[in-house]
Amino acid sequence: MKNEAEFIAGGGVTTPRGFLAGAVKAGIKYADRRRLDLGILLSETPCAAAGLFTTNKVKAAPVLLDIDRLKKGTARAVVMNSGGANACTGKQGMADAIETAALAARHTGVKPEETLTASTGVIGVTLPMERIRAAIPKIVLTREGGHDLALAIMTTDTVPKEAAVKADGFTIGGILKGAGMIHPDLATMLCFLTTDAPVEAAFLRKALRKAADISFNMMSVDNDNSTNDTAVIMANGMAGGGMIKKGGKRAEAFQEALNALCIYLAKESARDGEGATKLIEVKVSGAASLKDARLAARAIAGSMLVKTAVHGSDPNWGRVLAAAGRSGAEVTPEKMELYIGGTGVVKDGEPVPFDKEEVVRHLDGKEVTIALNLHLGRWAANAWGCDLSEEYVKINAEYTT
Questions:
Q1: Does 129 lie in the same domain as 28?
Q2: In the annotation, is 188 catalytic?
Q3: Which of 39, 43, 264, 301 lies 20 to 30 angstroms, CA to CA, from 114?
Q4: Domain stop point among 241, 271, 301
């Protein structure tokens, strides 16, 4: 089908035409120079751009700077670091974000106002600007540099998240970091998307919002909303063809491709949650409204009791119904129908006989599916999460020590 997105083997954020990236070991985190931690993403030509950001009232300096700069709907470069969130750092934090963007702009030859910034790491620590000043001129931008950039934004992630899709003559690529403090309500998750499609800025904003609502906003690792959540997309138009805009011939193909890419990246983030051993996919159907379907799915995927039950392969299905019941969604207990894997465990709100060993085998796997039918309407939604392990507690108990 024309509108069907096809994933590109080995694809990433620099797969679309005209995008370059690179990263270096700047030693931002505790002067640790063993890992990549500072990088730049650049379009060779001007871009339409859009972004979504954390709804946390405590916002990092890079988030505030990007919100302001994206009001024009354009951007060409993003400079990003791991090892420090540059959040709760006051006037100095904003000054550092502006300077970092200016340094990257000078290095790449673009205007400072066309350069965005992004940071991730420990909150409340100012950036080591002397190291950043020394490192930015050493960043070499190439078509192959997207993979290094994906590595550079990792914090507690164990693997880089990157992918690209093609559809209808254009390509969309992306990278994402996020393993802890992940409960996006976009509008610590960072996601950068690129496309060589010619996209109208107004449509680009709406397309990103729609894609985020069914992907990033439907995943949860630990119910904590970050100060730095950022999702940015840049479209440089180098694939040619008519402008993609609302109601246009290629609008549907673009939206479907962007949806597919964002869902993939969201699932990979949940799969790699801090200390996670299992990916949880929650499928809610039969809801009275789309809002209700999303509320119930997110509540189940984010429930600490559901997460611990999945970790221990305990078929404690009551926790699922309880999470749905407190989600704010309309539910009628007597109509609920629940499946774990392919096994029905509840019908009409009451337990039914089931093979406990079969359910435990499913819970023992690397991917766990929970399906809840509310039998109240036609709306459905999926959400993704992960189990909660002892390792999660260890990681976060020792994060700065």
A1: yes
A2: yes
A3: 264
A4: 271
Give the chain's domain count: 2
Query: Which residue, 164, 166, 172, 138, is CA-closest to 152?
Result: 138
Find the length of the chain.
Answer: 401
* 139 in any annotated domain: yes
Taking only the tens of pLDDT, the chain with its 401 residues reads 455 899 999 999 999 999 999 999 999 976 666 799 999 999 999 999 999 998 888 999 999 999 999 999 999 999 999 999 999 999 999 999 999 999 999 999 999 999 999 999 889 999 999 999 999 999 999 999 999 999 999 987 888 999 999 999 999 999 999 755 445 554 458 999 999 999 999 999 999 999 999 999 998 765 556 688 899 999 999 999 999 999 988 999 999 999 999 999 999 988 887 778 999 999 999 999 999 999 999 999 999 999 999 999 999 999 999 999 999 999 999 999 999 999 999 999 999 999 999 999 999 999 999 999 999 999 999 999 999 888 877 776 776 55
What does the alpha-carbon distance between residue 218 and residue 59 come to, in Å, rounded to a whole number? 21
Q: State whether 118 and 211 are in the same domain.
A: yes
Find the catalytic residue in 54, 188, 195, 230: 188
- Other residues' Cβ atoms within 10 Å of the Cβ of residue 213: 18
Cβ atoms 314, 394 nearer than 8 A = no
- Residue span of the structural domain in which 151 resides: 6-271
Same domain, yes or no, for 267 and 328? no
Nearest alpha carbon to residue 339 among 355, 376, 387, 292:
355
Look at the alpha carbons of 219, 224, 225, 230 in this order and tell me if their dihedral is positive or negative: negative
Amino acid making up residue 349: G
Residues 258 and 291 both lie in one domain: no
Looking up residue 50, the CATH number of its domain turns out to be 3.60.70.12
**What gap in Å lies between CA 278 and CA 161, rounded to an integer?**
17
Domain CATH for 365 = 3.10.20.340
Residue 229 inside a domain? The answer is yes
Residue carrying the six token digits 């000078």: 106
